[in-house]
Structure formats: C-alpha cells, structure tokens
Write a structure and sequence with these properties.
This protein is α+β, with helices and mostly antiparallel strands. The chain has three domains: about 60 residues, Arc Repressor Mutant, subunit A, CATH 1.10.10.10; about 210 residues, Bira Bifunctional Protein, Domain 2 (BirA Bifunctional Protein, domain 2); about 45 residues, Roll (SH3 type barrels). It is built from nine helices and 14 strands. The structure holds biotin. Pfam families: BPL_C, BPL_LplA_LipB, HTH_11.
C-alpha cells in the first residue's frame, strides 16, 4: 500500500474527525513535512481537506468520477463523442488522441481523462488538470480544409464553448483572442489545436479542450490563483460535468456543421460578438516581440487585426493578449 493510501486509510478510520499532522506522522513514521507533501499530492488527485491550525486536517470530499453511462445516454450528437475513450489518469489526452489517429480512429472520437499529469497548454505552457475536477478532453476531427484555415477551427471551438457556458449556466463568459474563455477577467478554459497536414491540407486535427469545472480556490497552485477560475466558483455551486459535456458536444457539432456548410463567416460574426479583446487598447506578446494598439476585428483566416498608433493595421496570427 502506498503512503498516500495509508494516509487515506487513517482519514477513513477517523470518520470525519480532524487528524493532526503530528498524529499522522507518528502513526506512519514519516516527518510532518512528508505528511504535508502527501496531503498536497492527494489534493491534486481531487481529495479535499480542511486544514485548521492546532487541529490538523479533515477529509471533506473525495474525487468524483464521471458517470460514463450518463454521458453515453445524454449524447445528442451524430458523431462527436460516439466513440469514446475514457482514462483515469494520462499524461495528456492529446498524446492519447495522436496515438488513436495512427490506429485509424474516426472523426468525432473523443478522449477523456479524469486527470492529466502533463497537460499541455498553448505556447509550451502546462495545463493544470487535477483529478475529477474538470473536463480534460481531446476530439479528433478530419476536416480536410486548407492548412491556413486552422485558426478558424480554433475560434470555432471557443465560440461553441462560450455558447455552452452562457446557455447552460447563464454565466457571462467572453473570448480572449484567440481562444481563451474568461469569466470576470479570469481564465476558465483553454483550447489547443494540434494538427497533421499533407500537401497543404489538414488531414486531422486534435482539438484539446480544458474546462475548469469543479475546481475550488484551494485546487489552484499559487501562480494561477489570481488569474484562473472555475465554473463552480463562478456559479457558486458544483456543476454537473456529464450534462455540461453533452451540451458542449452538441453545440460544437452544430457549429462545425454550420462551418462545413457556410464557411467561416457566421463563426466570425459569433466570435466577434462574444469577444472581450476587440475595440479596446491591448498589448499582444508575440514570438517577434510585443505589439500595442487597438484590436479592431478578426479577418477571414482568424488573424487579429490591430490598429497601431501610427494608424497602420497589423495582422497577428498568434500571441498572448494582455489588457
Ligand atoms: C491553453 O489555454 O493554453 C490551452 C489549454 C488546453 C488544455 C487541454 S486539456 C485537454 C487537452 N490535453 C492537453 O494536454 N491539453 C488540452
């Protein structure tokens, strides 16, 4: 039995009572620092502890697993999520999805995990994905569109998720270019598209979406506390992950069908209506340096058009927006 399991066993036996760090360290013959480290690791896995000075820790909640039967019966899609791979713990759902593509997985195949140990974000950043708290998913698409249109798909995902959050939860979500979803200025979701192309056409896209659903303030590491939030924090109550996922897949599939029929124009209009980046002074960090100006619109490829102080218009294809 691992040390984490032994600690959990002690809490199970304590029946909801407080256990001091000293008691745990004595019973398991480990230092108080080691006790603290194990508690932190358990928190990352979705266990919740109340910590009170001089009393110690109390186990208040255990990780909750997705009810897959509810997901499968709740799907309202033709293909998105109809092939579903579910994992308790993975490095990254993106990596798993890449493997499935090699094995011939079809469009709409969905990879879901309760926890990611090496969740990937845009621009080489990490994505915090604690157990049982979010929707950490990768969806396989085979759009067959020209490579330069990839940013359009990224924006499409942000529009769909924004609609879901507004429609299902009534929360005021907005899109920060290109595809961060913010509520009250804090990030609640991120989208990462990875693709393979041949002869300038997109063969397949692996669309990774991370939605911070039921994280509580103590689930965030220090560096994210001020800039990130979750749907549960914003709504003031825990969110039904299964229902949210089914609704998102439905909204996404509908929007994708619209895109296939009518092209990017309707998506662009919806994106601009939900954007929090437009018509205000912004600064964008790009690989070539910072660009400052007023964001005016996005063009037909999904690039951001910024009016610089000298009156000229600059196109940006990637970067991080700062207000
Ligand atoms: C970002 O905002 O930087 C994008 C974050 C994307 C995170 C999701 S979580 C599911 C999928 N698997 C990953 O490793 N990353 C994406």
């Amino acid at each position: 039995m691992s040390m984490n399991q032994r600690i959990l066993e002690l809490f199970e036996q304590s029946d909801g009572a407080f256990l001091s760090g000293e008691e745990i360290s004595g019973q398991l013959n480990i230092s108080r620092t080691a006790v603290w480290k194990h508690i932190e690791r358990l928190r990352e896995q979705g266990y919740q502890f109340e910590a009170v000075p001089r009393k110690g820790y109390r186990l208040t909640a255990k990780p909750v697993k997705l009810d897959l039967a509810r997901v499968v019966t709740g799907l309202e899609t033709a293909s998105f999520g109809r092939h579903l791979k579910y994992y308790d713990e993975v490095e990254s759902t993106q990596t798993v999805a890449h493997g499935l593509v090699q094995e011939g997985a079809q469009e709409g195949t969905l990879v879901l995990a309760e926890q990611q140990n090496a969740g990937r974000g845009r621009m080489g950043r990490k994505w915090h994905s604690p157990k049982g708290k979010g929707i950490w998913m990768s969806l396989i698409l085979k759009p067959g569109i020209p490579l330069q249109m990839t940013p359009q798909l990224t924006l499409l995902f942000a529009v769909a998720l924004c609609r879901t959050i507004r429609g299902y939860l009534g929360l005021e979500a907005g899109i920060k270019w290109p595809n961060d979803l913010l509520i009250r200025g804090r990030k609640v979701s991120g989208i990462l598209l990875e693709s393979n192309a041949e002869d300038e056409r997109l063969l397949h896209v692996i669309a990774g979406v991370g939605i911070s659903v039921n994280l509580e303030p103590q689930d965030y590491p220090e560096e994210l506390k001020e800039i990130a939030t979750s749907l549960a924090i914003e709504a003031g109550h825990p969110i039904d992950r299964e229902a949210l996922l089914c609704r998102f897949l439905r909204d996404l599939e509908q929007l994708y069908a619209l895109y296939r029929e009518q092209g990017f124009a309707p998506i662009r209009t919806l994106w601009e209506a939900q954007s929090v980046s437009l018509h205000r002074p912004i600064r964008v960090q790009t690989a070539q340096g910072a660009v400052e100006g007023t964001a005016e619109s996005i063009d037909e490829s999904g690039a951001l058009l910024i009016r610089l102080q000298d009156g000229s218009l600059q196109k940006l294809y990637s970067g991080v927006v700062e207000f």
